[in-house]
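Colleagues,

Please find the record for the two-part complex below.
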Amino acid sequence: MSIMLREIKEQPAMLEKTIRAETKKLDKIGRFLKDRDVDLIVLVARGSSDNAALFARYLLEITCGIPVSLAAPSVYTLYKSRVDLKKALVVGVSQSGEGSDINEVLRRSRKFGAFTLGITNNARSEITKTADETLLIHAGRERSVAATKTYTGQMLHFYLLANALNSNGRRLGIEKIPDYAAGALDLEPQIQTIAQRYTFMENCVVVGRGLNYGNSFELALKLMETCYVVAERFSSADFFHGPLAMIERKFPVVLFGAKGVTRKSNLNLLRRLKQLGADSFSITNDSAIERLSSVSVPLPENIEEELSPIPFVIPAQLFAAHLSAAKGLDPDKPRSLSKVTRTL
Amino acid sequence: MSIMLREIKEQPAMLEKTIRAETKKLDKIGRFLKDRDVDLIVLVARGSSDNAALFARYLLEITCGIPVSLAAPSVYTLYKSRVDLKKALVVGVSQSGEGSDINEVLRRSRKFGAFTLGITNNARSEITKTADETLLIHAGRERSVAATKTYTGQMLHFYLLANALNSNGRRLGIEKIPDYAAGALDLEPQIQTIAQRYTFMENCVVVGRGLNYGNSFELALKLMETCYVVAERFSSADFFHGPLAMIERKFPVVLFGAKGVTRKSNLNLLRRLKQLGADSFSITNDSAIERLSSVSVPLPENIEEELSPIPFVIPAQLFAAHLSAAKGLDPDKPRSLSKVTRTL
């Protein structure tokens, strides 16, 4: 078994351990931040961590009503701008904790008055010395170059933060996530069969919307890293603004189809794809989406949309790992990549 | 000549006319917004307009120091969230002025206390009735499905807004932009020759960083719409986080290489591509970048980085239009697309 596959399977345990170890700390930070009257959340990350941040922007705006901005690191690191962040919370996300530009943004935004948090899997890394507080993922070392357990660990921390910042008292049912994740892992045999079908796929488009938009970026990145598939990623809303023109080339569309508010737009897209004769592969818990797709991985219907992103990305991770194997590649050895990326 | 090509060539006149007609209004709005003490700018758009917004996020943060967030429309339209925007300026960008979700976000954010602006090319559209103030692009009707003159018109309005909001008194030399644009058009014969070289290109990666990051998305979109090329877009910083693994497939990288703070990262990328034996095509005014590229379009050295995005995107537009012709396609008739996209 590849390291990537092994780490994918460690996720339910990691999720449970992280909830147990970190909830109290998050609640304390939440009380502190409410007193500070935070009016803006800035998220800063690169690679997979940036995809977790993309998820978080939806989650935090939807559940807390605080506007969120995904930082452009070069504004701080290259252009050296003085951005007014007096009442902002800035969250840096870095698996290794050593991303130089992430740490530089945290340093500069502290100087501009922001309160800073670092989400990392490495308790002894630079980010823990840079941010005001560290939120630790309890994943053990991640050895695979393709991040999996740290991606969902980062997402989990954003759930904990959303609960801690939420002022209307409504709690998300975070404690259900580890079980949902375990259930998703049980789908592996079906996913392995589906991966066979795509052995010779060279291009694809990954589509997700709302809370699952970040997942579409994450699957696309996994496909590029481990399968060398040219994977475009779009919101099903943006897809009609141009990219649809490519689709008659008949390359497959992979869709995150969680039951919920994005349903109508996902169904519209699938109907349009059907007219165009395009192939579609859906990860879904919605029987109407299943019926309109060429193939699908069916998740339990009872998964709430707001809790869907973690259980829905797990079949996607499994798909990338098995597709890599089907293509005769080694997902643990992506060409030209290294685990820690230092950009400035 | 295609409609797309004709409209590309109308840009210098459009830019000049828009500067002349709109500067006063922008300055008045700027004074009003400074009194309001705006502490957040939210930009909302889709398609090409969203690429203009991506440019604007860099420009506004760099020149005004006000944090910028690119809105996720579904947070407002599908999830119906109440985002706290009391001291925010929300700018909707829509060529047609009829994008239903853009207008819905403006409506909701006005209700939540924001001041709203609409940037459009259509003085009689819905957005002009929805936003507090309209910023008009003076481009005449855009008939090509692939937006060109309205994209640079939107960028220009963000320059005018940046000047109007800037409290340090430093003015960008916006009045030089129409001449720079005219100079870029003169490069058409060279670009036409380069386009021939890529006649059989099916995939590519477009790379830009900082102020030219939005342009990389825009060129990728043009290539998808008019040439059916699967075009990935990345920041040269993110490129090392995964996508680089695909590059040994030897598909070309198109780079926006404006002289300035992104230079080092662009040179690093080109050196890495050279090691990997990949093809590169640069739009650049930096002789070092030119030397490291397989082919390049050379722009005048004296173009300042902060004014580069409009003159640099024009060769990219010309490239897409000529590549479409080289491939035997009609850039004015992209498959499956319509000019006005209504998403909710």
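Chain A touches chain B through 70 residues (CB under 8 Å).

Comments are welcome before we finalize the supplementary table.
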